[in-house]
Amino acid sequence: MTTYSEPKWLPWARELQAMAQCGLTFTKDPYDRERYERLLALSAEIFHRHSDVSPEIIAGLFAGQVGYATPKVDVRGAVFDDEGRILLVRETADNGRWTLPGGWADVNLTAAENVVKEVREESGYQVRVTKLAAVWDRTRQGHPVGVFSCCKMFFTCEVEGGAPATGLETSEVRWFWQYELPAELSSERVMMKQIKRMFEHKEQPGLATDFD
Q1: Residue 176: beta bridge partners?
Q2: Which of 55, 80, 138, 151 could be 71's S-S partner, Cβ–Cβ 3.0 to 4.6 Å?
Q3: Do 201 and 126 fall within a single domain?
Q4: Are 89 and 48 in the same domain?
Q5: Are residues 76 and 59 in the same domain?
Q6: How big is the chain by its Cα radius of gyration, in Å?
């Protein structure tokens, strides 16, 4: 089992936010609404006190969350070429650090369709999804802590067409052998152990999907 750690206040604050969000979604009692709004404010205050994020930004993040609280979904494409190299892109939002192409899943698209879209937009390549290789919890994988719970889905892919081209969120597109993977990874998005695991899935297609 993967070991992980995060400050004790974080899961408490995250659970308070989720509880308040669900309560505000379903309650019809005005007094309960006041209580849930207070819970939401307390959660925002906890995040603010333990980070350098302003209360206004946190309140804005919370205001955009409606309905039953569920984890966010992030999709990543492990694209391999015929030589066995993997595709990485430089993420402009993280000082040009490298990552597997991907991002938040959009509505009205399947998880696989989201991967195809993200790879095309960030790298210029048209790909075919071959396997759901992993479904991992962001916190338990050891990524930097985040406000919301997040589920990360990794798919192996093959190139069907296109040409290398940067997008709005990327500054470079490049293929890497496993022995030359860059150390400067965008750890909020991908970790070295995850990329190496994708090589194992590529080399052993019969491996079961990783989870948790």
Answers
A1: 86
A2: 151
A3: yes
A4: no
A5: no
A6: 19
The CA-to-CA distance between both ends of the chain, in Å, stands at: 9
What is the percent of the chain where pLDDT is above 70?
A: 98
The model's confidence at residue 4, banded by pLDDT at 50, 70 and 90, is: low
Query: Per-residue pLDDT tens for 42-56?
Result: 888 888 888 878 877
3-class DSSP state of 89: strand
CA gap 176, 77 in Å, rounded: 14
Q: Are 99 and 91 in contact (CB under 8 A)?
A: yes
Alpha helices in 30-92 (DSSP H): 30-49, 55-63
Other CB atoms within a 10 A radius of the CB of residue 161 amount to 10
Q: From the centroid of its chain, how far is CA 48? A: 22
- Counting the structural domains of the chain, the total is 2
